[in-house]
Amino acid sequence: MSEYLVEFNNISKFFGKVIALKDVTMKVKKGEIMCLLGDNGAGKSTLIKTLSGVHKPDEGEIIVEGENTIFDSPKDALDMGIATVYQDLALVSLMSVTRNFFMGREPQKGFSFLKTFDIEKANKIAADRMGQIGIDVRDPSQAVGTMSGGERQCLAISRAIYFGAKVLILDEPTSALGVHQASVVLKYIVKAASQGLAVILITHNVHHAYPVGNSFTVLNRGKSLGTYTKEKLSREKLLGMMAGGEELDKLEVELQEMDRINKKN
Amino acid sequence: MSEKSKSISSKKDFIKDERLQKVSKLKVLLNRPELGALGGSILVFIFFGIVAGDTGMFSAYGMLNFLDVSANLGIIAIAAAMLMIGGEFDLSIGSMIGFAGICIAIPAIYWGWPLWISIVFALAMAVLVGYFNGILVVKTGLPSFIVTLAMLFILRGATLAITRLITGRTQVPGLRVLIEDDPIAWIFATDTFKWLFAWLGSMKLIELRTDGTPLATGIPPSVIWFIALTIFATWILMKTKYGNWIFASGGDKVGATNVGVPVGKVKISLFIGTAVASTIFACIQVLDAGSADTMRGTLKELEAIAAAVVGGCLLTGGYGSAIGAAFGALIFGTVSMGIFYTDVDTDWFKVFLGAMMLIAVVFNNYIRKKVTESK
Fold this sequence. Notes:
The complex is a heterodimer of chains A (265) and B (375). Chain A is globular, with a radius of gyration of 21 Å. Chain A is α/β, with parallel strands linked by helices and 265 residues long. Chain A has a domain at 4-94 and 143-233: Rossmann fold (3-Layer(aba) Sandwich), CATH 3.40.50. In chain A, the strands form three sheets. In chain A, strands 6-9-10-3-11-12 form a six-stranded mixed sheet, sandwiched between helices. Chain A is 38% helix and 27% strand. Chain A has helices at 44-51, 74-79, 97-101, 119-133, 149-162, 179-194, 206-212, 235-241, 243-264; strands at 4-15, 18-29, 33-38, 59-64, 67-69, 82-85, 108-109, 116-117, 167-171, 198-203, 215-220, 223-229. Chain A is built from nine helices and twelve strands. Chain B has one domain: ABC transporter involved in vitamin B12 uptake, BtuC, CATH 1.10.3470. Helix content of chain B is 69%, strand content 2%. Chain B is built from 17 helices and two strands. In chain B, strands 1-2 form a two-stranded antiparallel ribbon. Chain B is globular, with a radius of gyration of 23 Å. Chain B starts with a helix and ends with a helix. The A-B interface holds A 74-75, 86, 88-95, 99, 102-106, 108, 115-117, 119, 128, 131-132, 134-136, 138-139, 142-143, 145-149 and B 7-8, 11-12, 14-17, 20, 23, 28, 31, 239-241, 243-245, 247-248, 251-252, 254-256, 258-261, 314, 318-319, 368, 371-375.
């Protein structure tokens, strides 16, 4: 068996004439956080959707625990233990913490057509799970709308883990959060990885990715610029590899030029 | 540092956020969707208690009168509320009532079917109409408001055209004689607890007719159906998996789908629910009146939605309760009957209905903001 939990080898995806992804390779080990970085339009969303079974890759192979696999639907990926937490989190703000936690997968009790949703058990599990992250849901029947952005993110991640995720794909989990909230979420992600999950963290924020990541894959215009372990990559180099890096250098030169011209006049 | 690690290691020792306030029991109660309608009902009863307390409105006969009206509206309001929680509207409820009425009457009177087969036939047609509404909304992604508005016209028109084609008129009388000896019709046509009323009459505790029998003879079937449906709907919403799916489907369709809720199926079943509730309403009324009228149920869809809204349902879905809708129906039924016992001109009823709904919407909107606001 391979040392990697999931391998995505030479994945390509085309939409008509548009090459959305070309030869992207990514591997994640158990207990590892793999950060996928890229600017807007780099192909991150397409890659996530391919990993989570929404799109089928046109080329390449997906290997889960050593076995070559094809995902026909997001449910297939989920059944293999690959869970994706999208940016919208799939939480309903008017519903309670518990009802959100078990949405679509409610624990039941009783017989046949008299089966009921076991709210007491669900409340207990939800409060327990949130407590483990250090979020005190005083009342699991409170609406999710009353929670902060970071707490909601943690709830969505915690739900995915509870329902048997082995590989967690997180789509921009910190993008809408403040500094403190983001650090709470990142801490939780590290904790999840330390418990043996493989995490693929998708972000465009190097400052969030660098402290928590074990390896980094940078995506630029549909192509992978390679995967690097943390030891071989400095924060500055990573910043430079992002699509913005080169352009920011150019911008700096241009600004200096403008400054020079202004001074002349 | 040691404190921090402790808080992570121990499950029960949560990190306390100093900005959190203790939530009082009262505030929890205030967040319930049915609170507004409950409060409204109490106000309405206090008002009529003062204004019409000695007029006979609160005699056994008077009470059954307004309860009957409330219950009839309640039967469709509860189904409408569940559909609204699921994020959709059904404007074809009123037309479905008329359509169901002739589905019972024409086979029974003109084709000689047994009454119970006609009732089963009407229920089957309701399932068909509801399924059609649902599948159209789910498959096309069009707003249910438009789809069911079209169905409102189609069903009412078809009801009128078919009835006139077959019978040459717009009313089908003569059903009353068929109720006796029918194995099913009694479910929709029998007063219950007659013994209780007879006993109360014999004790001279309730009003009597000149011949000595009590004026109020029993609980009308609508009231029993109303209570049973309220309990059933509340059980579904609060206690079952399917109830959670209804809230999820109305609250966030995309999110619910992503975690595996069969949103389409849930919505279709709720449309079937409103159509079947309309048919139950039609059964009770048609068997009570002994005749089907093509115009029966006109505008009932709006009253049902109004009752659901007063009961705390949000127009955007995902929030509301069946008990709330039941109280909403009770408010409308009580006022529409109670107004006869006061000096107020009955023309003012619709003004009240509109004003009540406006207040409810403003109140609900405020509650929704409270609930969804993040700290």
